[in-house]
């Protein structure tokens, strides 16, 4: 049995792909590693094929035309045979000891027939340039080392979410959610960390620093310059999230789970305000208005529910440049705290 399928989407990743794959090989025959070469023009495809040749029972190389990160995640899920599915970006890696702990925990639960729908782990922002780090954990929010449901979660701060880096989904539940990420789009991790949550009932949190997120390249999607430039990508993902569940569907969920779903929508929408209003152009104003108009015409109750959130009552009271000034100041503060760029 393959306990975990690791999808490694990569585009022109020749300089760091090996570090990622080597960290995942620690799982041995208990895992599969699906390297998705997303139409690379460097040696990424060759490196993927070499790993498949060397570890034919563990590594699979999948080659496809360029479609972006979401397309790579979709392709990995299509080929996954493991009980659980985990995305590890090609420029990131995982900690060996935390990895062993996660895998042994899953194997123990599977043997007892008690496995979770979703495992949650910590992730670490590794600042390679100055050798510092920022650990994102959930010790104040989730019970540790035992199964729990949404009703036992303590509220998360607005700026804290359950992110793709921290999630290990049960593959069958993930597929049941109907998740299909948009192609040629950055920030699809927001959709991945929202839509499947409704299909995850039994949770388990391991307080281990498993996922290591590389910080230090100027072309990364989270730098303030890039998030402002790629506002249209953020809006596209926000629209996917708003379309995933209607107001009535959200209301039908158990209250604690519904609360978490709204929390994620709230946090990502705050980012959307920043991405879009950080600059003032006719195109940005039009795209922002069209996002809200689409939601209002499709689901007026969900539109009103989100617009009533205190953050948006406040932001909507401000002129465009006021929105941009406030949200930019908040984002810069968080960037300084976490050092995203």
Number of helices: 14
Could you spell the SSE succession in H and E letters? EHEHEHEEHEEEEHHEHHHHHHHH
In total, the number of strands is 10
| Unreliable spans | none
Bulk shape: globular
Radius of gyration: 20 Å
Structural class: alpha/beta
User: Span between N and C termini?
Assistant: 40 Å
Give the amount of beta strand, in percent.
15-25%
Largest sheet: 10 strands, mixed
> What average pLDDT do the residues reach?
94
Q: Indicate the percent of residues in helices.
A: 40-55%
Describe the structure.
The chain has 341 residues and is of the alpha/beta class. It contains 14 helices and ten strands. It has helices at residues 17-24, 44-54, 69-79, 96-112, 171-176, 189-192, 224-229, 231-244, 247-251, 255-277, 282-298, 300-307, 310-316, 320-338, and strands at residues 4-10, 31-38, 59-64, 84-87, 93-94, 118-127, 132-136, 147-148, 167-170, 203-215. Strands 1, 2, 3, 4, 5, 6, 7, 8, 9 and 10 form a ten-stranded mixed beta sheet that branches. Strand 1, helix 1 (17-24) and strand 2 (31-38) form a beta-alpha-beta unit. Helix 10 packs across helix 14 (320-338) and helix 11 (282-298) crosses helix 12 (300-307). The N and C termini lie far apart (40 Å). The model has no long low-confidence stretch (mean pLDDT 94).
List strands and helices in order, with pairings.
Elements (H helix, E strand, L loop, with lengths): L3 E7 L6 H8 L6 E8 L5 H11 L4 E6 L4 H11 L4 E4 L5 E2 L1 H17 L5 E10 L4 E5 L10 E2 L18 E4 H6 L12 H4 L10 E13 L8 H6 L1 H14 L2 H5 L3 H23 L4 H17 L1 H8 L2 H7 L3 H19 L3
Parallel strand pairs: 1-2, 1-4, 2-3, 6-10
Antiparallel strand pairs: 4-9, 5-10, 6-7, 6-9, 8-10
Helix pairs in contact: 8-10, 8-11, 10-14, 11-12
